[in-house]
Write a structure and sequence with these properties.
This protein is α+β, with helices and mostly antiparallel strands and 194 residues long. The protein has one domain. The strands form two sheets. Strands 3-4-5 form a three-stranded mixed β-sheet. Strand 1 and strand 2 form a beta hairpin. The longest helix is centred in the first third of the chain and has 24 residues. It is rod-shaped, with a radius of gyration of 31 Å. The chain starts with a helix and ends in a 28-residue tail after the last strand. 23% of the residues are buried.
Length: 194
Amino acid sequence: MSRRQIIVLSALAVLLAFLLVRFFRTGNREEIHPPESVASPAAGESPPESAGLRRAVTVYFPREGDDLLVGEIREIAADSAPAGEARAILAELLKGSAEGNLSPFPPETKLVQVFVTKNGTAYVDFSREVAARHPSGTSAEMATIYAVVNSLTANLKTVKRVFILVDGEEKETLSGHISLDRSLRSNMTLVAKK
């Protein structure tokens, strides 16, 4: 072995010895600190309402004096499931207008169920009052149908079409004018321009 190789090997041995001593001496002194986190509610406790995520949506109501729909901004609880947000949007629609617009539904109409399929069709089931007490006329029927369809399709990216059921069953129409035998796409031409 040459003198140069002996010096390099000796330097490596000293370095290795130094690293081993340092590793074993400091191994027990290292402290691990858990990351700071937000306090979570105790088991069985639900988080406060204000802690839930919320988002703004636009729901559409018939405007008095013409056949157009007018959007009103509402705030709903954000939900990871499209059907959950669809229920919240329809609940806001059923509450009625906060800005003096007309209700699209006859009194006592209730939302029975909402399903959203993987292909983007929302099945919305209303109680029988939506048809039994619906006022006659093409305009009134169109306003009810597209208040529902436009409110869902405009706010939920996953919903492309809406199929309306009455008391769990398919109906030909609500009051004899607009066919409900298929799912419907949005019709934003019915929305009033601002």
